[in-house]
């Protein structure tokens, strides 16, 4: 691990993907935010984002629990929604213990770490509230589900433990990671993707596609899952938006 | 992890080494003994041994902290010395964060896990007291030193976190030989895909999208590349065709 500088960034960062962002979604206890920060810094992760923490932010209970990982808390950024928190990220993982009724790739922490090291662009890893975990709408934003393979008879990971396993796997990969032989275009940012999905949904709304009303949320999730699955580049997202614009505004030639 | 039975022992135990024993050497707080038990059971380890716990044993603070991992605490065995605790074990690892002035092999949790799965006989992993860690005499009993590769600028693993990383790595070794747990739906057939792309191209042609003529072949290739990239399932292809039909034939509601 000698290639970690004090802030935890790999010295060869220019050649490989930046370290992932840890996103705590609606965390409940300040103490657990502190413990997560401590878990992160042990393995060189420094960038924490908080989505609507229950007790506000800053939280005086976080600092003591961080056991010295203050720089992570000091730099933590606050967001109102998951979408805003991951807008600049090109790979988003949703950490869940249980399998969901969502058709997305399921990866282990080791597989996610390999992907994060191999792919360009910044990754975000979502962790849900301590008691309930991520909601279906949070999971829908992600491209893949990250599941820790756990004893099926006793799955009882707390938030900081889930964070430490993911951070540990990422850190293991730092030493192993090689820059990709071919520089791949990174997937479009989440914000670009949201713009594209918004354009399609507006058109479909106009066309009367969303019917009956009680099935609309599920239909929207299905569309989002499909459209996040490809990992389209920014150029591909622009092309798809051009396709949609052409369909919305035909011109005679 | 389907090969784990409720007690966490691999079903193919007869063919491989038994799960390692976790030895807590002079642990201080009952709470931390409980947290270590919880960490162990998450990854299928059930055998805990306690060497001279500071506050005696049983300790009423251990149970609540174990969050349901009572079977680990109930079966925990008490010893007066490290030597007695590991007497039946054929591989002993001493977990330390810092390197000691002892000439022994130093392995990572991943390397230790591989060794434990490969070698016959029972392994024991020693963890020291929360505040001070293992003493030199404890380390001397071990055949190898197990060190978690940690951020050199911030090494702050607590006892349960060190235990969980070791247990996690052992558990990964169990699972590696197994097929993936989730079989994803296969991508749609090429014929389904061609039908979908044909439908889109017909609509785009009508909308005047393909212009100028000399760029049409390249544009078609770009669209095909984008739409084959996701590996959509047959159901997703049907959904996308439904989207296209809705856009082509809007209905007022």
UniProtKB/TrEMBL annotation, chains A, B:
Gene3D superfamilies named in the record: 1.10.8.590, 3.40.1280.10
UniProt-listed Pfam families: SpoU_methylase
**Domain annotation tRNA/rRNA methyltransferase SpoU type: ranges:** 21-168
User: A biological process (GO) annotation for this entry?
Assistant: methylation
Entry superkingdom: Bacteria
InterPro entries xrefs: Alpha/beta_knot_MTases, RNA_MeTrfase_TrmJ/LasT, SpoU_MeTrfase, tRNA_m1G_MTases_N
Which keywords describe this protein according to UniProt? Methyltransferase, S-adenosyl-L-methionine, Transferase
A single GO molecular function term of this UniProt record: methyltransferase activity
Give the family per the record.
Belongs to the class IV-like SAM-binding methyltransferase superfamily. RNA methyltransferase TrmH family.
Q: Which PANTHER family match?
A: TRNA/RRNA METHYLTRANSFERASE (PTHR42786), TRNA_RRNA METHYLTRANSFERASE SPOU TYPE DOMAIN-CONTAINING PROTEIN (PTHR42786:SF7)
Name of the protein in question? RNA methyltransferase
Q: Which organism is it from?
A: Sphingomonas morindae
